[in-house]
Protein backbone atom coordinates (compact mmCIF):
# COMPACT_ATOMS: atom_id res chain seq x y z
CA UNK A 1 0.00 0.00 0.00
CA UNK A 2 2.85 2.37 0.83
CA UNK A 3 3.86 3.00 -2.80
CA UNK A 4 0.36 3.94 -3.93
CA UNK A 5 0.01 7.74 -4.00
CA UNK A 6 -3.79 7.60 -4.24
CA UNK A 7 -4.11 5.43 -1.13
CA UNK A 8 -1.85 7.82 0.77
CA UNK A 9 -4.05 10.69 -0.40
CA UNK A 10 -7.11 8.73 0.71
CA UNK A 11 -5.66 8.38 4.20
CA UNK A 12 -5.01 12.13 4.37
CA UNK A 13 -8.54 12.93 3.18
CA UNK A 14 -10.12 10.52 5.67
CA UNK A 15 -8.06 11.99 8.50
CA UNK A 16 -9.50 15.44 7.96
CA UNK A 17 -13.12 14.29 7.49
CA UNK A 18 -15.61 15.38 10.13
CA UNK A 19 -17.99 12.54 9.33
CA UNK A 20 -17.61 8.98 8.02
CA UNK A 21 -17.41 8.61 4.24
CA UNK A 22 -20.13 6.17 3.20
CA UNK A 23 -19.67 4.95 -0.35
CA UNK A 24 -22.00 2.45 -1.96
CA UNK A 25 -21.40 -0.95 -0.39
CA UNK A 26 -19.94 0.67 2.70
CA UNK A 27 -20.99 -2.32 4.83
CA UNK A 28 -18.67 -4.66 2.95
CA UNK A 29 -15.45 -5.74 4.65
CA UNK A 30 -12.88 -4.38 2.22
CA UNK A 31 -9.23 -4.95 1.53
CA UNK A 32 -7.58 -1.66 2.46
CA UNK A 33 -5.18 -1.85 -0.48
CA UNK A 34 -7.46 -2.49 -3.46
CA UNK A 35 -10.70 -1.35 -1.69
CA UNK A 36 -12.62 -4.34 -3.05
CA UNK A 37 -14.52 -6.73 -0.78
CA UNK A 38 -11.93 -9.07 0.74
CA UNK A 39 -13.30 -12.12 -1.08
CA UNK A 40 -12.71 -10.30 -4.39
CA UNK A 41 -9.29 -8.84 -3.55
CA UNK A 42 -6.97 -8.36 -6.55
CA UNK A 43 -3.75 -7.53 -4.71
CA UNK A 44 -2.14 -10.89 -5.53
CA UNK A 45 -2.41 -10.25 -9.28
CA UNK A 46 -1.04 -6.72 -9.21
CA UNK A 47 1.72 -6.06 -11.76
CA UNK A 48 4.44 -3.41 -11.40
CA UNK A 49 5.71 -1.75 -14.57
CA UNK A 50 8.27 0.91 -15.36
CA UNK A 51 7.46 3.52 -17.99
CA UNK A 52 9.08 6.51 -19.62
CA UNK A 53 5.83 8.41 -19.01
CA UNK A 54 4.69 9.63 -15.62
CA UNK A 55 1.23 10.53 -14.34
CA UNK A 56 0.17 13.31 -12.00
CA UNK A 57 -3.40 12.89 -10.75
CA UNK A 58 -5.23 16.01 -9.58
CA UNK A 59 -8.23 14.60 -7.75
CA UNK A 60 -11.49 16.27 -6.81
CA UNK A 61 -12.39 16.18 -3.10
CA UNK A 62 -13.76 12.70 -2.23
CA UNK A 63 -12.56 10.97 -5.42
CA UNK A 64 -9.63 9.11 -3.77
CA UNK A 65 -12.01 7.63 -1.19
CA UNK A 66 -14.35 5.98 -3.71
CA UNK A 67 -13.86 2.22 -4.23
CA UNK A 68 -14.88 2.74 -7.88
CA UNK A 69 -12.08 5.23 -8.55
CA UNK A 70 -9.69 3.99 -11.24
CA UNK A 71 -6.91 6.53 -10.81
CA UNK A 72 -5.76 4.27 -7.98
CA UNK A 73 -5.11 1.51 -10.53
CA UNK A 74 -2.56 3.70 -12.31
CA UNK A 75 -0.66 4.11 -9.05
CA UNK A 76 -0.90 0.33 -8.52
CA UNK A 77 0.91 -0.40 -11.76
CA UNK A 78 3.17 2.67 -12.02
CA UNK A 79 4.69 3.42 -8.58
CA UNK A 80 6.06 6.82 -9.77
CA UNK A 81 2.50 8.13 -10.09
CA UNK A 82 1.81 11.28 -8.08
CA UNK A 83 -1.57 12.30 -6.66
CA UNK A 84 -2.85 15.56 -5.18
CA UNK A 85 -6.17 16.87 -3.94
CA UNK A 86 -7.51 19.78 -5.96
CA UNK A 87 -8.37 23.07 -4.30
CA UNK A 88 -9.56 26.22 -6.01
CA UNK A 89 -7.95 28.49 -3.40
CA UNK A 90 -4.93 26.58 -2.06
CA UNK A 91 -2.48 24.74 -4.29
CA UNK A 92 -0.17 22.11 -2.83
CA UNK A 93 3.44 23.31 -3.34
CA UNK A 94 4.42 19.73 -4.14
CA UNK A 95 1.98 19.78 -7.07
CA UNK A 96 3.59 22.95 -8.42
CA UNK A 97 7.01 21.30 -8.04
CA UNK A 98 5.80 18.22 -9.91
CA UNK A 99 4.49 20.11 -12.93
CA UNK A 100 7.59 22.35 -13.10
CA UNK A 101 10.06 19.43 -13.12
CA UNK A 102 12.61 20.53 -15.76
CA UNK A 103 13.32 16.94 -16.77
CA UNK A 104 9.74 16.39 -18.03
CA UNK A 105 7.27 17.90 -20.48
CA UNK A 106 3.92 18.43 -18.74
CA UNK A 107 0.61 18.04 -20.60
CA UNK A 108 -2.90 18.61 -19.27
CA UNK A 109 -4.96 15.70 -20.55
CA UNK A 110 -8.25 17.18 -21.75
CA UNK A 111 -10.37 17.45 -24.93
CA UNK A 112 -8.91 19.88 -27.48
CA UNK A 113 -12.26 21.68 -27.82
CA UNK A 114 -11.71 23.25 -24.39
CA UNK A 115 -8.30 24.74 -25.25
CA UNK A 116 -8.45 28.38 -26.30
CA UNK A 117 -5.88 29.60 -28.86
CA UNK A 118 -2.96 30.21 -28.71
CA UNK A 119 -2.73 27.31 -26.24
CA UNK A 120 -0.86 24.39 -27.75
CA UNK A 121 -2.71 21.13 -28.31
CA UNK A 122 -0.93 17.83 -28.93
CA UNK A 123 -2.36 14.53 -30.09
CA UNK A 124 1.01 12.76 -30.28
CA UNK A 125 4.14 12.92 -28.15
CA UNK A 126 6.64 14.95 -30.22
CA UNK A 127 9.66 12.97 -31.33
CA UNK A 128 12.75 13.81 -29.32
CA UNK A 129 10.82 15.64 -26.59
CA UNK A 130 11.34 15.24 -22.85
CA UNK A 131 9.55 12.32 -21.18
CA UNK A 132 5.90 13.26 -20.70
CA UNK A 133 4.19 14.14 -17.45
CA UNK A 134 0.49 13.54 -18.07
CA UNK A 135 -1.62 15.65 -15.71
CA UNK A 136 -5.01 14.01 -15.30
CA UNK A 137 -8.00 15.76 -13.73
CA UNK A 138 -9.70 12.95 -11.85
CA UNK A 139 -13.38 13.37 -10.98
CA UNK A 140 -16.76 13.38 -12.68
CA UNK A 141 -16.98 15.14 -16.01
CA UNK A 142 -18.45 18.28 -14.40
CA UNK A 143 -15.77 18.24 -11.72
CA UNK A 144 -13.00 17.81 -14.29
CA UNK A 145 -14.28 20.80 -16.27
CA UNK A 146 -14.31 22.88 -13.11
CA UNK A 147 -10.72 21.91 -12.34
CA UNK A 148 -9.68 22.72 -15.90
CA UNK A 149 -11.28 26.17 -15.78
CA UNK A 150 -10.26 27.14 -12.25
CA UNK A 151 -6.63 26.01 -12.01
CA UNK A 152 -4.57 28.99 -13.20
CA UNK A 153 -1.28 27.12 -12.66
CA UNK A 154 -2.32 24.83 -15.53
CA UNK A 155 -3.30 27.58 -17.96
CA UNK A 156 0.09 27.90 -19.64
CA UNK A 157 0.64 24.18 -20.08
CA UNK A 158 -0.11 22.44 -23.39
CA UNK A 159 -3.14 20.20 -23.68
CA UNK A 160 -2.86 16.58 -24.74
CA UNK A 161 -6.05 15.46 -26.46
CA UNK A 162 -6.94 11.84 -27.14
CA UNK A 163 -9.36 10.64 -29.77
CA UNK A 164 -10.58 7.46 -28.08
CA UNK A 165 -13.12 6.19 -30.59
CA UNK A 166 -13.93 2.88 -28.87
CA UNK A 167 -16.76 2.94 -26.34
CA UNK A 168 -15.80 2.84 -22.69
CA UNK A 169 -15.69 -0.49 -20.90
CA UNK A 170 -15.94 1.08 -17.45
CA UNK A 171 -19.65 0.48 -16.53
CA UNK A 172 -18.99 0.92 -12.79
CA UNK A 173 -20.52 4.39 -12.81
CA UNK A 174 -22.90 5.94 -15.30
CA UNK A 175 -21.12 8.44 -17.57
CA UNK A 176 -22.82 11.71 -18.45
CA UNK A 177 -21.74 11.30 -22.08
CA UNK A 178 -21.28 7.99 -23.95
CA UNK A 179 -17.87 8.95 -25.36
CA UNK A 180 -16.36 9.60 -21.94
CA UNK A 181 -13.77 7.15 -20.63
CA UNK A 182 -12.61 6.51 -17.10
CA UNK A 183 -9.23 7.69 -15.88
CA UNK A 184 -7.43 4.37 -16.21
CA UNK A 185 -8.68 3.78 -19.78
CA UNK A 186 -7.30 7.18 -20.81
CA UNK A 187 -4.01 6.44 -19.04
CA UNK A 188 -3.59 3.14 -20.90
CA UNK A 189 -4.19 4.92 -24.21
CA UNK A 190 -1.66 7.62 -23.28
CA UNK A 191 0.97 5.01 -22.46
CA UNK A 192 0.38 3.40 -25.84
CA UNK A 193 0.77 6.79 -27.55
CA UNK A 194 4.02 7.44 -25.70
CA UNK A 195 5.50 4.07 -26.67
CA UNK A 196 5.16 2.51 -23.21
CA UNK A 197 3.39 -0.49 -24.68
CA UNK A 198 4.17 -3.05 -21.96
CA UNK A 199 2.99 -0.70 -19.23
CA UNK A 200 -0.13 0.06 -21.27
CA UNK A 201 -0.96 -3.63 -21.64
CA UNK A 202 -0.28 -4.30 -17.95
CA UNK A 203 -2.51 -1.41 -16.88
CA UNK A 204 -5.30 -2.61 -19.16
CA UNK A 205 -5.09 -6.11 -17.68
CA UNK A 206 -5.20 -4.71 -14.16
CA UNK A 207 -8.27 -2.62 -15.02
CA UNK A 208 -10.06 -5.56 -16.63
CA UNK A 209 -9.47 -7.74 -13.55
CA UNK A 210 -10.52 -4.90 -11.23
CA UNK A 211 -13.73 -4.34 -13.17
CA UNK A 212 -14.57 -8.06 -13.15
CA UNK A 213 -14.01 -8.40 -9.41
CA UNK A 214 -15.80 -5.14 -8.62
CA UNK A 215 -18.90 -6.28 -10.48
CA UNK A 216 -18.69 -9.76 -8.96
CA UNK A 217 -19.43 -8.14 -5.63
CA UNK A 218 -22.53 -6.38 -7.00
CA UNK A 219 -24.98 -9.13 -8.11
CA UNK A 220 -27.77 -6.57 -8.56
CA UNK A 221 -25.74 -4.41 -10.95
CA UNK A 222 -27.54 -4.00 -14.34
CA UNK A 223 -24.65 -5.71 -16.12
CA UNK A 224 -25.48 -8.98 -14.32
CA UNK A 225 -29.14 -8.67 -15.24
CA UNK A 226 -28.22 -8.08 -18.87
CA UNK A 227 -25.90 -11.12 -18.87
CA UNK A 228 -28.65 -13.30 -17.36
CA UNK A 229 -31.15 -12.22 -20.04
CA UNK A 230 -28.64 -12.96 -22.78
CA UNK A 231 -27.99 -16.45 -21.35
CA UNK A 232 -31.73 -17.15 -21.15
CA UNK A 233 -32.16 -16.25 -24.82
CA UNK A 234 -29.48 -18.73 -25.97
TrEMBL record:
Annotated signal peptide:
none
What is an annotated GO biological process for this record, any one? Answer: tRNA processing
Enzymatic class? transferase
The UniProt keywords, alphabetically, are: S-adenosyl-L-methionine, Transferase, tRNA processing
InterPro entries from the xrefs? DTW, DTWD2/TAPT
The reply to whether S-adenosyl-L-methionine figures as a keyword in the UniProt entry is yes
What Enzyme Commission number(s) apply to this enzyme?
2.5.1.25
The domain of life for this entry's organism is Bacteria
Q: Name one GO molecular function term.
A: tRNA-uridine aminocarboxypropyltransferase activity
Please identify the protein, giving its name as recorded: tRNA-uridine aminocarboxypropyltransferase
Organism per entry: Rahnella contaminans
